[in-house]
Amino acid sequence: xxxxxxxxxxxxxxxxxxxxxxxxxxxxxxxxxxxxxxxxxxxxxxxxxxxxxxxxxxxxxxxxxxxxxxxxxxxxxxxxxxxxxxxxxxxxxxxxxxxxxxxxxxxxxxxxxxxxxxxxxxxxxxxxxxxxxxxxxxxxxxxxxxxxxxxxxxxxxxxxxxxxxxxxxxxxxxxxxxxxxxxxxxxxxxxxxxxxxxxxxxxxxxxxxxxxxxxxxxxxxxxxxxxxxxxxxxxxxxxxxxxxxxxxxxxxxxxxxxxxxxxxxxxxxxxxxxxxxxxxxxxxxxxxxxxxxxxxxxxxxxxxxxxxxxxxxxxxxxxxxxxxxxxxxxxxxxxxxxxxxxxxxxxxxxxxxxxxxxxxxxxxxxxxxxxxxxxxxxxxxxxxxxxxxxxxxxxxxxxxxxxxxxxxxxxxxxxxxxxxxxxxxxxx
Length: 428
Ligand SMILES: *Cc1c(COP(=O)(O)O)cnc(C)c1O
Prior knowledge:
Blueprint: H1 25-35, H2 44-57, E1 61-65, H3 68-84, E2 98-102, H4 107-115, E3 119-123, H5 134-143, E4 149-153, H6 162-171, E5 175-179, E6 187-188, E7 191-192, E8 199-203, E9 216-220, H7 223-233, H8 256-265, H9 269-286, E10 292-294, E11 302-303, E12 310-313, E13 320-323, E14 328-331, H10 339-348, E15 354-355, E16 371-373, E17 376-377, H11 383-389, H12 394-401, E18 402-404, H13 413-426
Parallel strand pairs: 2-3, 2-4, 3-16, 4-5, 5-8
Antiparallel strand pairs: 1-9, 6-7, 6-11, 8-9, 10-12, 12-18, 13-14, 15-18, 16-17
The site of pyridoxal-5'-phosphate has 14 residues, from helix 3 and helix 4.
């Protein structure tokens, strides 16, 4: 437990979880857009970052968009249209269709399925990578064999068990939408994340490994699909003298100014990953003697991008913690701690940590949706069962015991040592 009587000296400037790290070239490319007056959604910066992305990730085509969420929306829509055809205006491509989705992730991974009218079925998480559990996915296909689309993310920069997920999807004739928003630059068996699914997304949001201040990209090997997404993203204008529309359109294209920021960031991607890796390793070393584990890396198959350093408190070292819908309580206990207490202590340093993504099946908005674990229906468990076995599901467990640590590239070793020290104080 953390002794609240101890005086803590906060950092002068707030240390963020992950904030943009600029280098100078970003400004040069933005300036170039300004000086040549390519200030809209067309221009050299856009063309160049689409090219660089294809080269880096090894995908056939990349479409620069206003956000990762927009990229995921168009990815899901492309999949829906390929599977079920073009719907009437006002209807989604997935209406009435079940889609298997990651459960423990940011809601941006899964919301696009709802935009398209699909019925989200959440698949539990596994401990090895904190991503979609292939065993639970297999179980879900047993229960709903008609499903033809799977949407999954690579959380915190650690690739999922892609081979297993791909093999299951192939066996069931299902398409994949891969959310690589957090894992740009991470690879699995030598291939970059974002290159495995049929239609995939990356993000240049302000807190990601590189940023455009905002922005995202749709990635695919299918040139026709990419061109279709480009058309959708600029309001679906037909090649005519007036505004002619045969399909529903969106205003999703990236600005050439934003693309200038991304262009200036790309050469620093590897350097950012190296900084994140050093942060992760210092935490691992500094927290080694405590009853907690770092987030998994699956070093055997993958090279993560170490976007966020996270920790999970050992079961035996958890003090009692109860979370309501919007706040949390805990009971301090000697020698033990919990994410709520650790996050409170970190905030005393004027630093930002964060809970793990709250699983989607626990979210009020998705409370009626199916949720499948490796043993079947994750909603069917009574409180008595949970009490008796100590088992809920993996996602709930990681959410209860896990937290994201400050992982900003610009964090000094001194600051990181202060965070490591205050986490030690939580277990006194
Ligand atoms: C950030 C993020 C997104 C969305 O990206 P935006 O560019 O913010 O829209 C999607 N999925 C995951 C897992 C993310 O972390």
